[in-house]
Amino acid sequence: MIFRRHHIASVVAVALTFATVISACKPAGNSMNSWAEIEASGWDYGSKLLFTPELTDSVASGTLSVAICHDNRYPYNNLWLEIEVTDSLSTTLDTVNIVLADKMGHWNGSGIGTDFQLQVPVIENLTINRPARFNVRHIMRDDNITGIQRIGLIFSENEQ
């Protein structure tokens, strides 16, 4: 009987630990962590990536960051993006230049082998009203760019 109680207590402890870890990985409240895959054939100039945050409150304020996953096929040291934020009250358009490599050609961020990831804040103190959506497109001079694998948008709500 003692073995059975100990076994049940162990299973419950493992389950609670697992549930805590899983819940810690999910963004809280009005935070967002969303990714869009880019086709291997490239990202076309007119192709917009749509991100829709699921806000729990009617209004949220925080920092919007862009994360970029790319490989060595990407031929430039930067990536120009146009970020359109539309909510129930307004639409704003921002143009950002993400510097992916230094002047010597060394990739910024972290990576293993030929794959790299960089996350940078692009809009601080952003206030969005529910419902909201984000559109992202590249505005490089090439009609199609290769080497970008994924684009992520991360909205981190300000501490209350």
Regarding CATH, which class?
A: Mainly Beta
CATH fold-level label: Jelly Rolls
How confident is the prediction overall: mean pLDDT?
Answer: 85
Q: What is Rg?
A: 20 Å
Residue stretches low in confidence (pLDDT < 50, at least 5 long) are 5-27
Using the 3D structure, state the CATH architecture. Sandwich
Helix content: 10-25%
Q: Give the H and E element order.
A: HEEEEEEEEEEE
> What separation lies between the terminal Cα atoms?
49 Å
Q: How many domains, as an integer? A: 1
Number of helices: 1
The global form is: globular
Largest sheet: 5 strands, antiparallel
Task: Describe the protein in words.
The structure is a single chain. The chain is of the alpha+beta class and 160 residues long. It is 15% helix and 49% strand. Strands 1-11-4-8-7 form a 5-stranded antiparallel beta sheet, with no helix packed on it. It has a 4-stranded antiparallel beta sheet with strand order 3-9-5-6, with no helix packed on it. Strands 2-10 form a two-stranded antiparallel sheet. The termini are far apart.
Overview in brief:
With 160 residues, the chain is an alpha+beta fold. It is built from 1 helix and 11 strands.
Topology:
Layout: H1 2-25, E1 32-37, E2 43-44, E3 49-51, E4 59-71, E5 78-86, E6 91-99, E7 110-112, E8 115-129, E9 133-138, E10 144-145, E11 148-157
Antiparallel strand pairs: 1-11, 2-10, 3-9, 4-8, 4-11, 5-6, 5-9, 7-8
Looking at this protein, list some descriptive labels:
11 strands; Jelly Rolls; 5-stranded antiparallel sheet; single chain; 160 residues
